[in-house]
């Protein structure tokens, strides 16, 4: 069998364009919105403020070492979001990571 | 169709890897403050997610360290991180193949900061069947 040589030259600039593309950002937004729906479904409800306070933000570039790629963020802006996540032990955002990773 | 054996309980595997660093629990109880008295450390291991690829169970695990002051909690949390990521390690409950730090040790709000402080970290832990 004849030998064949494969030569691979990574196109870092092209990869960067993909990572910062509109399509990449849109995919991240879709996944994060699915995460938002899941987080809302498992959010503890007392006054309802926490469950109503999820928001998805995105940008063409992230921050610091993630500045080379698009980013989407799931945020809870309730005043007691930190307490719900850590002190109550609900870990709503932590448990939501699976949904965002799987994309479904 | 043969049914595969169950995965080892990853919380117990992690607890085994952290034995010697403090009292390892699945849930903190009413006796938390008595366990911390005299400079003790309590480590809570909790699974918050992760899935398997049929061969390896890749769990997302929180390791929360409780101590009466922040420096003690931080030191124990760092020791726990090194104990996990230095693996693989064999425990009585199974082998911890690999640990990757997803979120390193950081202080989280304590329900009673005057009595104890809490430092938490999140890891991706890989375990296989025996």
**Most extensive chain contact?**
A-B, 11 and 14 residues
Round the Cα radius of gyration of chain A to an integer and report it: 19 Å
**Succession of helices and strands of chain A:** HHEEHH
What's the quaternary structure here? Answer: heterodimer
Trace the largest sheet of chain A across and list its strands: 1-2
The unreliable regions of chain A are none
Summary tags:
heterodimer, A: 104 residues, alpha+beta, two-stranded antiparallel sheet, 4 helices, 45% helix, B: 130 residues, STM4215-like, six-stranded mixed β-sheet, elongated
If you had to describe this structure to a student in words, what would you say it looks like?
The complex is a heterodimer of chains A (104) and B (130). By secondary structure, chain A is α+β, with helices and mostly antiparallel strands. Chain A has one domain (29-102). Chain A contains 4 helices and 2 strands, in the order ααββαα. A two-stranded antiparallel ribbon of chain A has the order 1-2. In chain A, helix 2 packs across helix 4 (92-102). With 130 residues, chain B is an alpha+beta fold. Chain B has one domain (10-128): Phage tail protein-like (STM4215-like, 2-Layer Sandwich), CATH 3.30.2000. Chain B is built from 3 helices and 6 strands. Chain B has helices at residues 10-18, 32-36, 70-85; strands at 23-25, 42-52, 56-67, 89-91, 94-108, 117-128. Chain B is elongated, with a radius of gyration of 15 Å. In chain B, 38% of the residues are buried. The mean pLDDT of chain B is 91. At the A-B interface, helix 3 and helix 4 of A face strand 2 and strand 6 of B.
């Amino acid at each position: 069998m004849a030998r064949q040589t494969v030569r691979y030259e990574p196109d870092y600039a092209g990869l960067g364009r993909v990572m910062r593309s509109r399509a990449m950002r849109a995919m991240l937004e879709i996944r994060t919105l699915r995460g938002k729906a899941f987080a809302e479904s498992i959010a503890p409800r007392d006054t309802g403020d926490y469950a109503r306070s999820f928001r998805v933000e995105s940008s063409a570039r992230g921050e610091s070492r993630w500045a080379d790629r698009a980013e989407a963020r799931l945020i809870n802006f309730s005043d007691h979001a930190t307490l719900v996540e850590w002190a109550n032990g609900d870990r709503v955002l932590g448990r939501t990571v699976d949904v965002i990773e799987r994309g479904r | 169709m043969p049914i595969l054996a169950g995965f080892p309980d990853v919380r117990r595997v992690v607890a085994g890897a952290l034995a010697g660093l403090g009292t390892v629990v699945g849930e903190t109880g009413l006796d938390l403050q008595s366990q911390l008295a005299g400079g003790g450390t309590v480590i809570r291991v909790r699974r918050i997610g992760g899935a398997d690829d049929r061969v390896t169970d890749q769990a997302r695990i929180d390791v929360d360290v409780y101590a009466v002051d922040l420096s003690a909690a931080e030191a124990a949390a760092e020791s726990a991180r090194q104990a996990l990521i230095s693996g693989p390690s064999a425990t009585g409950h199974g082998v911890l193949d690999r640990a990757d730090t997803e979120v390193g040790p950081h202080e989280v709000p304590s329900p009673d900061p005057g009595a104890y402080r809490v430092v938490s970290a999140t890891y991706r832990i890989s375990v296989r069947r025996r």
